[in-house]
Here is the input.
Amino acid sequence: MKIIEELRTFVIDNFLFGQPDGSLSDETSFLESGIIDSTGLLELIAFVERTYEIRLADAELIPDNLDSLAKLTAFIGRKLARSGRQPLCA
Here is the structure.
């Protein structure tokens, strides 16, 4: 499964209660749209670290990296590439 689809499934299942309502595009801001709050962001970070076996440094916890499916997918791809691992169909 592509990274973006894994992330989409996680967000829908955990924050939209399994009900995709069409409002979650690749570019939708999690915070501005109210999909994910600060507590949810911690859940998302834990999911990313566990699923992709990467560690997120405090300095990386910024909206440019985490605030949409597209941004998060690109960020994960960069982290995996830096670690020498290939992204699984980013």
